[in-house]
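notes to self, project folder thing:

trying the whole complex as one job this time. last attempt i did each chain seperately and stitching them together was a nightmare. two parts in total, labels are on each line so i dont mix them up again. if this works i'll redo the older ones the same way
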Amino acid sequence: MSTGNAYEALNDAAGDARWAYGTGFADPLAGVDTRLPDGVDGADLGAYCLMLGDDALVMSHRLQEWVTRAPELEEEVALANVALDLLGQARLLLARAGQADGSGRGEDDLAFHREPHEFRGVLLAEAENGDFAHTMARLLVFSTWRLALLDRLRASRDPVLAAVAGKGVNEVAYHRDYAAGWVVRLGDGTALSRERMAAGLAAVWPLTGELFAAHEVETRLVAAGVAVDPAGLREEFGAVLRQVLAAATLDAPPLPVPGAAAGRSGEHTGALRDLLAELQGVARGLPEATW
Amino acid sequence: MVTGLAQRVAEAVPDPELPMLTLADLGILRGVEEAGAGRVVVTITPTYSGCPAIGAIRADLSARLREAGYDEVEIRTALSPAWTSDWISETGRRKLSAAGIAPPGAAPVRRSGPVPLTLGPVRRRVSCPRCGSAETEEVSGFGATACKALWRCRACAEPFERVKEI
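result (full assembly):
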């Protein structure tokens, strides 16, 4: 058939199956072997997948908020691409969560029909965007931490988590490089850009302690060879941040002291409630709708 | 080599975002298994975690295989090993160039230890797919799809897309 462009390829009608496109999502784990590894508690694995999935889903939404508002078209495209990668990671992880915990809840159900206290993402992801420098500070911190985590998760005894991590590492590596590039440019830029960059970093820093605190589910799954111990990420995180901030001629704050695993326990700020009101509004307003 | 009908049909399905490439050119087809009595099992792998084309690819594969007489088409996803741009075939690379899209270079080789941080632009030898000049530069590491970056040629002044190494 002729496929002069992507739209022709999509619209070249070929039976009723064509109408499956755009009317709901196929299970992103269709055909993947989703049996649980021996000795792994399904409820714990489900909870852990929600933690990593919610981090990605909520961070993705914050980045999507920049679409139509970014300072340059190129940055808008960049932020949307990073958000899309994270959304893809979230879909896989939420799908795995609903399967592993035995609830059978799908990705949409978990994304759109949970209350704020049922979310397990870190507070760093839900905080409001602030200005562009603030957003880049948060993205640098988030990507540096997540990259170190996913890199270790490739060795997980859960083959689905290991596979999601294996793909995610390649993506989060360029998210981190992108954010680091802006932190250097703004930090080592004009007096104003430097001031904004330092303020963004100062705003984000108090939220980093939580990243290295282990929730009891994580502790149990570390022992089972499934999860990554967040405390073990602190040193690599510090080394990368020091490298970026030195290039940005900004002072590196002392390494964060591990705080309480608040978000992992469902203790969130009003920022998540507001974010979810927008993220979930359409799905809750029109519960029977497909798109 | 003699290949089965299902294999040939699946290989020839075009990618919805890079329609000059077939799924075989793109390297996302992991297996086509004829399971008898009009049943076929196709295994594909997504390029990027969030690639929105995967839904359309599943629908395309289903539709084409049904047209070819397979009543029962099952499409499985393989997440591991992760897709790499190295799996784009030589034919695929030629088709990309002919369509004005620079093909990717070799994917980065991962060594042990932490993933290295890259600060500042990476020097790459990228030829302009329109005029062939090596006087090219990256405008943005991101483009209209997850797999592409935006470049421009300083010789002919044309912008062009480039498939990223991953």
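what i see at first glance: The first helix of chain B runs from residue 5 to 12.
need to look closer tmrw
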